[in-house]
Amino acid sequence: MTDPQIVLTERVQQALANAFGSEYADADPLIRPSQFADFQANVAMSLGKRLRRAPREVAQAIADQLGDFPGTVEVSGPGFLNITLDSGWITAEATEMLADPRTGIGTATPPQRVVIDYSAPNAAKEMHVGHLRTTIVGDAMARIYEHLGSTVVRQNHLGDWGTPFGMLIEHLLDIGEAAAVEQLEAGQGTEYYQAARAKFDSDEAFKTRSRQRVTTLQSGDPETIRLWHVFMDATIRYFDKVYEMLGVTLTDADIAGESMYNSMLEKTCDDLEAQGVAVLSEGALCLFPPGFTGSDDKPLPLIIRKSDGGYGYASTDMAAIRYRVDDLKADRILYVVGADQALHFRMVFAAARQAGWLPDSVSAEHVQIGMMLGKDGRRFKTRSGESVKLMDLLQEAVDRAGTAIAERGYDEETRAEIAHAVGMGAVKYADLSISHDSEYVFDFDRMLNFSGNTGPYMQYATARIRSIFRKAGVEPAAAQGPIILGVPAERALALHLLGFGAVVDQVADLVEPHRLCAFLFETASLFSTFYEECPVLMEGVDAETRASRLALCALTLRVLETGLDLLGVPVPDRM
Ligand code: ARG
Fold first, then answer.
1. DSSP 374-397
2. Is residue 310 part of a domain?
3. pLDDT: is 379 or 394 the higher one?
4. Are 468 and 488 in contact (CB under 8 A)?
5. Is the CB of 147 under 6 A from ligand 1?
6. Which atom of ligand 1 is nearest the CA belonging to 159?
7. CA torsion angle for 368, 374, 377, 379 (degrees, to 10)?
């Protein structure tokens, strides 16, 4: 199975080497889809300049060297190469793809161990909807690497430790365990936090108790640890409800919160100090990875032990990176975390490299997640200005989806199922379809739109093809062609579908799931044109054409279903 763009890139590179010498064998021939042919290669334009020759002449020299390939090439304009593939080749490739159980998706060679740090909400701070996005993007990537045959180790780096736990535990004692658990399980962590905070700020005795509680917690006092568990377990039960609603693959076994690294922090600091990588500065133990300076040109510190002896976010991340390399045996570590933490991660990675904890053979990447904004362009809040409860937000998406399909005549149960899939699909697809590092406006109306590059549109496109098969009384798996490409819309669709495997590879390499969304959207659009122009089941369509078109429907369906599944977007059977 071969992506035409990749096949052609290799061909043109070979021709470049033949015509101008092997030093050009790796040049990017700049092959793009074109409106005048299947593809256009623009390399002759830039190469002409370099070689001081007319680009047209360069283009002709490449064309002459292309040799025997399944298509035709033509030099046009100032020096473009217009390339058209033989329909026979496309047909053969598409038919092979249809017979391939992996629908053209390859396997990672060699398979890697990919550690993905994602979701990571905080229990002791305000929970915010930004974590929805890190959850959704991280989960899609986890599914994709697994599908490619790599081993994925999910790490949910919960914010479950630190000084706020003193006041959170004292507040738990004040209101009683049962009441606290009820509140936390219901997703009212923010209200809980705010109540504790208000007392902390206004009540001296409470403040003193809270501070003492931090000390007893850190010393490992059994009763305090038990109370911490009561708090955390209830909080995690709420997170689990959110995960279940979203259909993400995270489980409790993937929880590796900040608290997990407690016992490693002292050694982390000692080892870094012994290596001379960490030094004391104004009483604090600091890392000064090379290349980081503040506004005053002074080296920027990454504090791993405060002057009062306490540890913080950076200490934990230094311990975590070592654990991920040494114990989890990562080849690649992804941190799917807000873009505002970019400096922190650059410093952690640099310091870990400096310490020799992160060898060159292991890559560490911060997958920056852009901030979630409200329609007003500000940080996302409810109308009354409070932060938004994740579950309420998800429920609203489902309710709105239910309203949108209310008049389609489904019974209550079916309607609820579809509404769930459409609501969650809309939220997830909206997060995935734009590049992960751009800011993102959370807008129900747009994400629930049934047309455009949205979840509901993609689900609808898929459900529509399923219904064609229901009408035909044929299972999609039984549609095996052969595929014949009669009209341009068939050809365009088939040619596009051949690029599926390459897009998935690219998404895995670049960690850019929005590219898969764009590919699937283009698939649905090309299918729409095909379906308008090419009757499948209509009377008068001869048996061969019908078989071919059903095969194209089946291949499109497989690409859409597989692609949406890799993204974690559910597809209801009907819509
Ligand atoms: N809990 C953090 C936050 O909400 C994200 C943690 C990301 N992972 C990490 N290893 N630091 O900002």
1. -TTSSBP--TTSPPPPHHHHHHHH
2. no
3. 394
4. no
5. no
6. 1
7. -60
**Residue in the block written with tokens 């975390």:** 337
3-state secondary structure 308-371: CCCCCHHHHHHHHHHHHHHCCCCCEEEEEEEHHHHHHHHHHHHHHHHCCCCCCCCEEEEEEECC
SS3 116: strand
pLDDT digits (tens, 9 = 90+) for 271-301: 999 999 999 999 999 999 999 998 888 999 9
Which of 351, 320, 411, 410 is CA-nearest to residue 120? 320
Distances (CA, A) of 195 to 189, 214, 269, 572: 10, 18, 35, 42
Counting the structural domains of the chain, the total is 3
> Is the shortest distance between the CB of 320 and ligand 1 below 6 Å?
yes
Ligand 1 center to 273 CA (angstroms): 25
Domain coverage including residue 167: 162-252
Given a cut of 80, whether residue 386 has pLDDT beyond it is no
**CATH number reported for the structural domain that contains residue 45 in this entry:** 3.30.1360.70
- ipTM greater than 0.85, yes or no? yes
Domain boundary among 252, 277, 309: 252
| Protein residue with least CA distance to atom 4, ligand 1 | 121
pLDDT digits (tens, 9 = 90+) for 50-67: 888 899 998 998 988 888
Q: Please say whether the beta carbons of 272 and 355 come within 8 A.
A: yes
Question: What's the rounded Cα separation, in Å, for the pair 264 and 328?
Answer: 15
Kindly report the CATH number assigned to the domain that includes residue 479: 1.10.730.10
Report if residue 79 sits inside a domain: yes
Q: How far is the CA of 468 from the centre of ligand 1 (A)?
A: 46
**In terms of Cα–Cα distance, which of 335, 134, 159, 126 is closest to 236?**
159
Handedness of CA 235, 241, 242, 248 (dihedral sign): positive
pLDDT value at 384 more than 70: no
Least confident of 18-32, 108-122, 430-444: 18-32
Instruction: Specify the ligand 1 atom closest to the Cα of 117.
Output: 8
**Could you count the other beta carbons within 10 Å of the beta carbon of residue 242?**
22
**SS3 state at 122:** strand
Full-prediction pTM beyond 0.90? Answer: yes
